[in-house]
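Many introductory courses stop at the sequence. We go one step further.
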Amino acid sequence: MTDTRTEQFSGRVAFITGAGSGIGRATALAFAAQGAAVTASDKSEKDLYETARLIEDQGGQALPVLCDVTRSDDVAAAVAAAVRQFGRLDFAFNNAGVEQPVAPLHEISDQDWNRILDINLRGVFYGMKHEVPAMLATGCGGAIGTPPPVRA
């Protein structure tokens, strides 16, 4: 194990949804590289634990938490686990999301549209709903982000 971290975010805690792969994993690793303790959440247990292993391999602290962002109770439990483990929440990145295959509007099914809304919108809402009180509890606030839109 080689510690390659800096201390820019030492003593700070980041919570990231969709941390099992892609942008979420890269963000989790970046926060850890800057010294933050990271609560990585994802729906895929295998991918989630791989992200946690990568964080720990670079000398960081990781708490992997299974979480379905379409369920408010899951998000609340994941945020609570972060605060319980690390004592605070400073950063959140509501990254979990899905894309719709490119198709004419009239060919998108109601089921596909509802899935996009549930994950990409409701997931961000549930994240912020539970992250904001945790951040305000420190008396210092925090920072919340979402990924940029994907451009075709």
